[in-house]
Specification:
Blueprint lengths: L1 E6 L15 H13 L15 H4 L5 H11 L5 H17 L2 H15 L19 E6 L9 H8 L2 E2 L13 E2 L1 H20 L3 E2 L5 E3 H6 L17 H4 L2 E3 L3 H8 L3 E4 L5 E10 L17 E12 L2 H20 L5 E5 L11 E9 L4 E10 L17 E5 L2 E3 L8
Helix pairs in contact: 4-5
Length: 399
């Protein structure tokens, strides 16, 4: 899986509807958020929310429609109700009450989904658009589970007695194949100018949350350490994107350092549930090894779009050279999640199980001036310096 980030300056002067909520109210909210520690015990800034847009009553219908189109849990109505409460709180002058409401507004706002690229199909997964087919579909063959068991390459007996049920132990040639695929990918990325980074797999929960992954509540895929107060602040990383994003938090980069191309090899730990029996035991796992690609570019839409297509080209080249039949899908709005602006999935044909399974995913979060864009993008802040001009960072993300 691969990640792409992009940075740029936000120009609110071109946003016609931005200040139908008063400029003073926006400045007040931003002032209080600078005082409130959104993330406990870690130096992360709050997300750079376009309050003038999200609190503008004129935009309420379009934002609510976008929430439904994306099948999101965002609550724009609740956010506007909190804004009404803030109006009343300001009359009382109760500073603690004002801060409490503004913090609640912030947490509501970061749950709002990004907009979608106009080329993204509307609706559910079945509406995905196939933009590329590579190779020929092969007939039925033994599954990888069956082949591995036949040659003694896979240990699965009693695995749940000492690890999670959806873990695995590879042996002999299959273990060698895993390592060979990692090395093959890293050699390819090295030729494309990527810098290899070794990253930690245990991260502060705030870093993970700022990348768009929930760590609280009953329904999430994040493993959280839970031993007294100290260890309870940390989680197991679900992808090295999180560590790479943390590496760049609050950094200042020069314009000529971009694009910055990073890659990492890590264990990914996720509390995933298998979709069906036919997926087999080595498809959807609680932990696996992954090579991550992570790119920072300027926030110009043409530059970031070109980089997205470049990443997709890298992905297709990697799998084409392996002789695997796969298809590239332009994913519909309900499959984008909250942060994504556009997403490509690559699904490989699994001849043993006779289905297409996702093996790569590419998605981009794009900043725009007159539509809703905030999200985790600026919870991990990097500044781009170009001469005497300093721009805030806006994050474009690709998995």
């Amino acid at each position: 899986m691969f990640k792409i980030f992009s940075f740029g300056t936000r120009n609110f002067s071109k946003c016609a509807l931005r200040y139908q909520i008063s400029k003073e109210r926006v400045e007040l909210i931003e002032k209080y958020l600078k005082k409130i520690r959104i993330f406990d015990e870690i130096d992360l800034f709050p997300a750079d929310i376009d309050w003038g847009y999200v609190l503008n009553p004129t935009n309420l219908t379009s934002i609510d429609e976008n929430i439904r189109t994306r099948k999101s849990n965002g609550d724009i109505i609740g956010l506007h109700r909190l804004n009404d409460d803030l109006k009343e709180a300001l009359k009382t002058g109760d500073q603690h009450y004002i801060e409490t409401i503004i913090e609640a507004m912030y947490h509501k706002a970061v749950q709002l989904p990004n907009i979608s690229d106009p080329s993204s199909p509307i609706g559910a997964e079945e509406n995905a658009e196939c933009v590329m087919n590579v190779g020929e579909k092969k007939g039925r063959s033994p599954t990888v589970d069956q082949i591995a068991k036949m040659y003694g390459w896979l240990r699965e007996d009693h695995i749940s007695l000492y690890s999670t049920q959806r873990s695995y132990i590879l042996k002999k040639e299959l273990a060698e194949l895993e390592n060979a695929l990692v090395r093959y990918t890293l050699n390819y990325l090295n030729d494309k100018g990527f810098i290899l980074v070794s990253v930690p797999d245990i991260l502060h929960h705030s870093i993970i949350e700022s990348c768009g992954f929930a760590t609280k509540g009953e329904r999430n895929q994040v493993y959280k350490l839970d031993f007294m107060n100290e260890y309870g602040k940390y989680c197991l990383s679900g992808t090295s994107e999180m560590s790479l994003a943390g590496l760049l938090k609050n950094r200042i980069l020069n314009h000529d350092e971009l694009p910055l191309k990073l890659c990492a090899v890590s264990r990914c730990l996720r509390a995933e549930v298998s979709g069906s029996e036919r997926e087999g035991k080595l498809y959807r796992l609680h932990e696996f090894t992954k090579v991550e690609m992570f790119v920072l570019t300027l926030g110009d839409s043409k530059i970031s779009s070109l980089m997205l297509e470049n990443i997709k080209e890298y992905q297709t080249e990697l799998f084409s050279d392996l002789g695997i039949h796969f298809r590239v899908l332009n994913m519909p709005t309900q499959e984008l999640g909250s942060p994504a602006y556009k997403k490509y999935d690559i699904e490989a044909w699994m001849p043993g199980n006779q289905f297409y399974g996702e093996v790569l995913s590419s998605k981009v979060n794009r900043p725009t001036c007159n539509i809703l864009f905030r999200f985790q993008a600026l919870q991990i802040v990097t500044v781009i310096r170009a001469g005497d001009c300093i721009s805030k960072a806006v994050r474009i993300k690709q998995i």
